Sequence to fold (102 residues):
Amino acid sequence: MKKAIPDAARDKPIEIWFQDEARVGQQGTLTRLWARCGTRPRVVRDTRYEWAYLFGAVCPARAVGAALVMPYANTEAMNLHLQEIAAAVAPFVGEMIPRIIS
Fold:
């Protein structure tokens, strides 16, 4: 692991964070309806759909986390998530410069 650490970061405290994002929500499903004997037609029950995107990160060593619920998963949402993680990093670690995606 020492080889993976840049020279500027050696001999400094390091926190390891695990991050993931997920989409949760509801989308219409199929249902059955009254029809002639011997047939089983299917129709869409509900055509509305709504999603929410969950962004989360944890530092198991300190048992802390950072999370956001966003309406979209895009660059802006990821940048907000990185800022949330940066705010939760331990003060002794020093500067955390999240990679802002442009």
Summary: The beta strands are 18-27, 30-32, 42-44, 49-59, 64-70. The mean pLDDT is 81. The radius of gyration is 22 Å. The helical segments are 75-88.
